[in-house]
Amino acid sequence: MSSVNVKNTTFIIGLLFFCVWAPVWASPKITVEVVAEKQIIIQKDGKSVTQRVPAKDIQPGEVIFYTLKYSNSGDAAARDVVINDPIPDKTVYVAGSVTGPDPLFSIDGGKHFNRPSLLTYTITNARGRQEKKVASPDRYTHIRWVIKEIAPGQTGQVGFQVRVQ
Question: What's the CATH number for 26-164?
Fold first, then answer.
């Protein structure tokens, strides 16, 4: 009977070891795919229909829709996932177009991020005095989202629009 208890104890200790250390082996695996599209109008069954197509042959004035699709193919949740995306050169962010939770913006090339009302810069006015101004959306250089948690197998997306200059 004593040897049976030893075997059971060994099994229980081994099971506890696995349960305690298994989370160390589990890890999230986050991937982000960026999709750039523009809208076109096509004729379908005699009606004008708007659809999105890959953004190729872009012309000044056109709007590009950026969608960042994220997923966790790992076996553990990812917490506080940071997704940064630059506003492409020769484009301007379209005010109010961002989708996703609590976006933050940068006006200094992605060094610092904040909410739009807190993004300020300093200019020297005509009298030579320093003056703080709140940045307008055309000054934004980057957008950041912090996703609280992405569970294993979970997907989601964030996005924004820009106008080509």
Answer: 2.60.40
Cα–Cα distance measured from residue 106 to residue 120, given in angstroms and rounded to the nearest whole number: 10
Neighbouring residues of 54: CB distance < 8 A, sequence distance ≥ 6: 36, 37
Residue-level length of the chain: 165
Q: Which residues have a Cβ under 8 Å from the Cβ of 155 and sit 6 or more positions away?
A: 69, 70, 71, 72
The residues facing 142 across adjacent strands are: 86, 106
- pLDDT beyond 90 at 14: no
In the chain, where are the structural domains located? 26-164
pLDDT for 65-117, tens place per residue? 999 999 999 999 999 999 999 999 999 999 999 999 999 999 999 999 999 99
Single pTM value for the model: 0.79
